[in-house]
Amino acid sequence: MNSTKLELMPEDALRLNVLLAGEVLAIRIDEGARLIYGLTARGEARVPLHPSGRVDRYFMRVRELLGGHALGLPDGYPVHFRRWTRMGQASEQKLATMLKLGEPEAVLAVAFAPMLSDELARRAWWAQPTSEMARIMLGHATVRNGAMGKRLVDHLVEHLPFEEDPVIAMDTVRIVLASGLIEPAAREQLWAKGKRRPHYLIGFIESLPDELPTEVPRALPDNLPGMANVPAALLLARCYSGSGQSYLKAVGLVLEKPLAHEAVYLLLDLLGNYFAAGRDALASLPQFPAEAAALDALSRLSNADAEPILTRTTAIGPLMRRHLEPLFAPIIQHLKILRGMQ
User: Fold this and answer.
1) Which residues does residue 28 pair with via DSSP β-bridges, in sequence order?
2) What is the edge-to-edge ordering of all strands in the sheet holding 35-40?
3) Distance from C-alpha of 270 to C-alpha of 208, rounded to nearest angstrom
4) Domains of the chain: which residue ranges?
5) Can you give the pTM of this predicted structure?
6) In sequence order, which residues have a C-beta less than 8 Å from that of residue 20 and are 6 or more positions away?
7) Which residues, given as ranges, of the chain have pLDDT below 70?
8) What does DSSP assign to residue 22?
9) Which residues in 285-319 are b (16+ Cβ under 10 Å) and which e?
């Protein structure tokens, strides 16, 4: 058996070593195009490769060279590195080193790292500009508040129409709205699209419950304004406001067309939080028995209400909705009462 180590073509080895001798901030490998890209302080550099023999083995040797240079280890990309990327508490210097390996797994590990800075996010985005990376990195306050935050949000908004997985689409909307970085016009477009794609609305229900495009407000009962120190009364007034009526309508749309288990669990938790002040409203609002009963019932909702149903089925979409009818029907009735539709 020939144990001779595969060597790079002299021209490739020379160009790679020249690249690595400079200030390289990140490496990206394109095996299909047979190119190595380097991000440097002066911009982007390209090194074309000329594989001899099996292309996969040749690129393995390239990765060994990159790993050896970055990690100072003769065998390059070792099992040790795979353990390292999952440590979770790597220093900023180590994170910077990981971006020089040309390994997607390493870039992903950097994106998750608690120590991620705005500058490292910029380098990681150059190395792997995907929607998954944008969602992960926007989870860091340093990125949201830095130069990269708006750039990542704009990317997610632009690519959202092409996302086929409703759960990922739902989470994407949640992330961009929670960031506070989305342009007002784009936010309005997302709200409008929510009429056809109700899972978009969950992000609005979660992050902007009192800032929704308003519906016509309901007139408050004459004797409600005098109850300014009664939490349940304040909640009822919130529901009667223009944004409150919009909130209730949006919840109803989501309940009509829930697309996945995750959406149901999240929505029920959000409802329980929104109506939390309505707990025991029957005692504090006896003059409004129907409204008080609705507030009290909605305040007690949580994901646990759906567990007995959803843990027994893998159904999604309309079939899941039929399974949930015993749970959803009373909720919808409570919403209608608060919207003045009963």
Assistant:
1) 37
2) 24-30, 35-40, 43-48
3) 12
4) 10-129, 130-190, 194-338
5) 0.89
6) 65, 66, 69
7) 1-5, 73-90, 225-226
8) S
9) beebeebbbbbbbbbebebebbeebbeeeeebeee
